[in-house]
Design brief:
Distance between the termini of chain B: 35 Å
Radius of gyration of chain A: 15 Å
Largest sheet of chain B: 6 strands, mixed
Order of helices and strands of chain A: EEEEEHH
CATH class of the domain at 65-170 and 255-299 in chain B: Alpha Beta
CATH architecture of the domain at 65-170 and 255-299 in chain B: 3-Layer(aba) Sandwich
Oligomer: heterodimer
Largest interface: A-B, 37 and 58 residues
Strand content of chain A: 35-45%
Strand order of the largest sheet of chain A: 3-2-1-4-5
Structural class of chain A: alpha+beta
Number of strands of chain A: 5
Helix content of chain B: 25-40%
CATH topology of the domain at 65-170 and 255-299 in chain B: Rossmann fold
């Protein structure tokens, strides 16, 4: 139920702050997504989408941490 | 798909498995809260990659499962009305009410439609002004902002033939309910990544401090789950009890402010009955006074309907981490996904349904 998937923002439109829409690419499938909850979103960003709404803009720096963390554990040990 | 595939890499998962093995000394019981995490854990066999000293308990984080039977009955009553178009997320259709489910209403000729987004229901309402369109607004904090937006837009656009049947639940009160039980055995939690995407995790920091328990906000892919478990085990072995964030590529400490704002505009916190568990104070949401004209329970005169569930189901004990699906005498016998006896077998994210699908050994 709380499934949310990352997709890449292709374009953004809409002046209304509470009804801002974006075209989002999910591995070749393009969907219309409401981005009103992520006003900071830019084209090229990845957003986490749930029930047609972007809930978060993915932080690319932080995304690498899961892999870096393993390396750090290895160094400590 | 980028940001999914790399977190399913087998070598990363097995490196985490070895890392966990190297630090664990004592027996620990950790609960993942979210049904989506339960599904991933059982599907990918994450629990079977862990040392025997670590057990996972599968928490109450499946909104489909915990929606009380009386709410399903209300949905069925409303959907059976000839002038109603009833809109729902797909996974609610097979959830048994006290006599039947929404799928039966549909097969008997009711206009029950599966939608992907609550805004689809609003669109149906504006296109069908002679019908009443009712949306079954089910979910945890993850779904609450989207559901709130449909009501906010209905008021703004003056769409009067739209209303919502609300069954919204909140995670932190459920965690506190589990931890307050004298029977509690849970020693650490993986908090639900997408719930925290919306809400942040300051509420969890308070719970960690109050109950001296480690909580790790965790994502849904195998590498996320393994890292979350590693972080939780590391804290347990070191005697720490902090809230940490494994899912930092998506979750920030304060969460999504715009989403929280709209939730508080449309909803207010209320007591809530959880299927299989019972009443948990201040664990749900209802429409605030300002939006009560969109409350389907008021519109259809169903406010005072109550129904107690009688079943052999032990879902409540499973969702508190006190029993496993295999310990139920009805599991895979009289209870299966086609004929569920209760909460945890009704949705693919329920612990019993996940075990039935991936681990049934009969």
């Amino acid at each position: 139920m709380c499934l949310a998937v990352p997709g890449k923002v292709i374009s953004i439109r809409g002046e209304d702050r509470m009804n801002k829409m974006a075209k989002v690419d999910f591995s070749g499938i393009i969907k219309e997504v409401n981005v009103s909850f992520t006003p900071e979103v830019k084209e090229g960003d990845y957003v986490i989408v749930h029930t047609g709404f972007a809930l978060s803009v993915l932080d690319k720096e932080e995304a690498a941490k899961t892999f870096r963390y393993l390396k750090e554990i290895g160094e400590i040990e | 798909m980028k940001y999914i595939d790399e977190y399913r890499d087998k070598s990363i998962v097995s490196e985490y498995s070895e890392a966990i093995n190297s630090i664990v000394k004592n027996d620990w019981l950790i609960m993942e809260i979210c049904g989506g995490q339960t599904h991933s854990i059982v599907k990918y066999g994450i629990d079977e990659l862990l040392p025997k000293k670590i057990s996972l308990a599968h928490g109450p984080g499946c909104p489909v499962c915990v929606t009380p039977v009386e709410k399903i009955d209300k949905a069925i009553e409303i959907a059976s009305d000839a002038k109603v178009i009833f809109c729902s997320y797909g996974d609610m259709l097979r959830v048994p009410g006290s006599e039947k489910d929404l799928l039966r209403v549909k097969s008997d000729g009711g206009d029950v439609r599966i939608i992907y987004s609550p805004l689809d229901a609003l669109k149906i309402a504006s296109e069908n002004p002679d019908n009443e369109v009712v949306f079954f607004a089910v979910g945890f904090e993850t779904t609450a902002p989207s559901n709130a937006m449909s009501v906010f837009q209905a008021k703004k656009q003056n769409i009067r033939n739209f209303s919502v049947l609300v069954s919204q639940v909140l995670v932190p009160p459920a965690i506190q309910f589990i931890l307050s039980s004298p029977l509690n055995k849970i020693q650490g939690f993986l908090a639900a990544g997408h719930v925290c995407t919306v809400m942040g995790y300051t509420q969890y920091e308070d719970i960690s401090e109050k109950y001296k328990i480690p909580i790790v906000v965790t994502g849904f892919e195998p590498a996320d789950l393994m890292q979350g478990i590693y972080m939780c085990v590391e804290q347990l072995e070191e005697g720490k009890h902090k809230t940490q964030n494994q899912y930092s590529r998506v979750v920030t400490r304060d969460g999504n402010n715009s989403a929280q704002y709209l939730m508080s505009e449309v909803f207010e916190v209320t007591d809530m009955k959880w299927r299989g568990i019972g009443n948990i104070p201040l664990s749900g949401l209802k429409l605030s006074e300002k939006y009560s004209e969109f409350d389907a329970e008021i519109k259809f005169g169903l406010i005072n309907y109550n129904k107690e569930e009688s079943t052999k189901c032990i879902a409540g004990l499973i969702m508190q981490g006190l029993k496993k699906p295999f310990e139920c005498s009805e599991f895979a016998k009289n209870c299966n996904p086609e004929h569920p006896l209760g909460a945890t077998m009704v949705s693919s994210e329920g612990a019993c349904a996940a075990f039935y699908k991936y681990r049934k050994r009969i």
